[in-house]
Amino acid sequence: MVDMVYSLSVHHGMSAPTQIRLDTASSVPAWRQIVSQLRTLVVEEVLRPGDALPPVRQLALNLGIHFNTVAEAYRALAAEGFLEIVHGHGARVVDRQAAVPAGPEVADDFRLKLRELVAGIRARGLSARVAATELRRLAEAMEGL
What we know:
The protein has helices spanning 30-43, 56-63, 67-79, 104-123, 128-143, and strands at 3-8, 18-23, 83-86, 90-93. By secondary structure, it is α+β, with helices and mostly antiparallel strands. It folds into 2 domains: 3-93, Arc Repressor Mutant, subunit A (Orthogonal Bundle), CATH 1.10.10.10; 104-143. It is globular and about 45 Å long. It starts with a strand and ends with a helix.
């Protein structure tokens, strides 16, 4: 497995650079990996409204991928309401309105995906103790949002 890593710097003064990692051995397309990681950074408020993302070509060059791959990721995030893309001025994180409260099917889907994720990492050799510790840390961090 080869990871391509890019340290993402934004203009609001993060204490440490944020990294975008691509797993080139993954069956998940690179653009989806980028979408997932950037969405997480926005939801966790690491990236804030008004933060500029790297230009498409710069991120693509640093990750060693085609610029259309990054452009597709940015377009997907714009369609989800996370980014505003202005031709010639790049992509910026937007202030999203509060989401509509989720119905029970969303919680069911979340539980299913979480169980699949845990099963996948356990199958790759991560101990139950380490997985539980990381899940607790994530839960505690989410409660602080």
